[in-house]
Amino acid sequence: SNKTFTMVKPHAVADNNIGGIIQMIETAGFRIVAMKKVLLTSENAGKFYEVHKERPFYAELCETMSAGPIIPMILEKENAVADFRALIGSTDPADAAEGTIRKKYAKSKGENAVHGSDSDENAQIESSFFFSGIEQF
Ligand code: ATP
């Protein structure tokens, strides 16, 4: 597919890094298809991250993702999912390559600046969690 889904996480929004992150995304050749600002409840975050509910960091993840507003976006580019995963870098900023979004903006594994879908199927599911059809153009 040519689409993926991302969110700017609460700490990056709070630190005024929405613009810096979008700059890196657009410079890398992605087009913003849909975008908004949303404040999740911990319950909503739990639904979004349901696949991780057995993981030890699930409660922390739900708290971190509901700590403040986020910026969900649908992005478009050829080979979007894989290319975006490369642009964001490793989950742990200590392992993130030079030039990646997480290298520049992540603080820890939990506060790692952005989310990026890991498959075309999940990109579709995650996009539908936040956006209706009329917002995707
Ligand atoms: P994402 O799906 O957000 O792009 P990812 O695929 O790099 O992240 P996953 O292993 O799927 O990483 O974990 C989902 C999210 O859970 C991560 O982005 C991170 O914020 C959080 N997370 C992962 N591992 C830990 C951990 N050990 N401690 C705290 N939070 C974690």
TrEMBL record:
Gene Ontology MF, one: nucleoside diphosphate kinase activity
GO biological process: CTP biosynthetic process; GTP biosynthetic process; UTP biosynthetic process
Key word Phosphoprotein present: yes
Enzyme Commission no: 2.7.4.6
UniProt entry keywords in alphabetical sequence: ATP-binding, Kinase, Magnesium, Metal-binding, Nucleotide metabolism, Nucleotide-binding, Phosphoprotein, Transferase
Active-site residues (renumbered): H115 (pros-phosphohistidine intermediate)
Family from the record: Belongs to the NDK family.
Highest taxon of the lineage: Bacteria
Pfam families: NDK (PF00334)
Positions annotated to bind ATP: K9, F57, R85, T91, R102, N112
PANTHER family: NUCLEOSIDE DIPHOSPHATE KINASE, NUCLEOSIDE DIPHOSPHATE KINASE DDB_G0292928-RELATED
Tagged with keyword Metal-binding: yes
Top enzyme class: transferase
SMART domains linked to this entry: NDK
Name recorded for this polypeptide: nucleoside-diphosphate kinase
Domain named Nucleoside diphosphate kinase-like: residues: 1-135
Needed co-factor(s): Mg(2+)
InterPro entries membership: NDK-like_dom (IPR034907), NDK-like_dom_sf (IPR036850), Nucleoside_diP_kinase (IPR001564)
